[in-house]
Specification:
Number of strands: 0
Shape: globular
Radius of gyration: 21 Å
Distance between the termini: 69 Å
Number of helices: 13
Oligomer: single chain
Number of domains: 1
């Protein structure tokens, strides 16, 4: 019988995040020194919050609970995709991190690397809303297929790959919404609420299945020692309900705010004045 993997405190992962935070801080300082009003201070808070969320989901001692509770495992996924990823993007990571390096490196990136036709083609593909939606959906559905899910539970390497996939899928998913530098708007403004609404559909289907199927989908949680007085099926139902409520709120709340802003009389009046 394969042995189950139990996470712990990973010093290397923690060190990597600390180094990223220090490099970002250096880039922010240099960018603010050169262009004092280029970026607001709240972006630093957002980026650091994204790193802390990433560590909480995948690197903190609490993260080991995902082997005992599917609800904790689901919370990890949601934290990586819907909290850490958008916060990191809101921190304008590309432009800030680039300014942490020498100026000649920054000029070579902006003047040479980003101008390569192959790089521009690749960037257009991976940041296209359709690709971003498909990548995020594939990550969510794929890692919840029982065979792949069990692989992540039994192998530390695959478990780490799973975390990377969810964070990367989250960054791709939120990229068309946040549109950090160097991205450009690829669709009309009304496309963002539609994009967010459509993204809830596969998550709703998966969460409804976990909540109402009436059987334990993942054998790992049947044999695992229970930390709380909750059955494996009850834990699965809680995980499905958590995903259902959380995704609905996180995706549809910004969609509603954007829609209200688009339909506000002041916004429509300003468009008429500048037409």
């Amino acid at each position: 019988m394969p042995s189950h993997v139990h996470g712990g405190f990973p010093p290397l992962f923690t060190l990597v995040l600390i180094v990223v935070a220090l490099v970002y801080s250096r880039g922010w300082y240099r960018l603010q020194k050169a262009f004092p009003k280029a970026l607001s201070g709240w972006r630093v808070v957002a980026f650091m919050g994204g790193l802390i969320s990433t560590w909480s989901a995948a690197g903190s001692p609490v993260a080991a609970l995902d082997h005992q509770l599917l609800t904790a495992h689901m919370a990890q996924h949601l934290l990586l995709m819907t909290v850490a990823a958008p916060l990191i993007l809101l921190g304008a990571p590309a432009i800030v991190l680039l300014h942490a390096f020498p100026q000649h490196f920054l000029r070579s990136i902006q003047g040479t690397f980003l101008r390569w036709p192959l790089v521009q083609w690749f960037g257009r593909i991976v940041t296209h809303p359709v690709f971003c939606w498909l990548a995020a959906t594939a990550a969510v559905i794929g890692w919840h297929v029982p065979s792949l899910f069990e692989l992540g539970m039994q192998s530390e390497t695959w478990h780490e790959i799973e975390h990377v996939c969810f964070l990367a899928a989250g960054l791709l998913f939120w990229w068309p919404v946040v549109q950090p530098w160097p991205s450009l708007a690829r669709w009309p403004e009304w496309g963002i609420p539609l994009y967010l609404f459509i993204a809830t559909l596969p998550c709703d289907a998966l969460s409804a299945f976990l909540t109402f199927c009436g059987r334990v989908v993942y054998p790992h949680y049947v044999s695992e020692h229970r930390l709380l007085d909750i059955s494996a099926l009850g834990d699965q139902e809680c995980a499905g309900a958590l995903m259902w409520v959380w995704v609905t709120f996180v995706y549809l709340a910004p969609a509603a705010v954007i829609t209200i802003q688009m339909l506000s009389p002041r916004r429509r009046t300003s468009k008429v004045e500048f037409a």
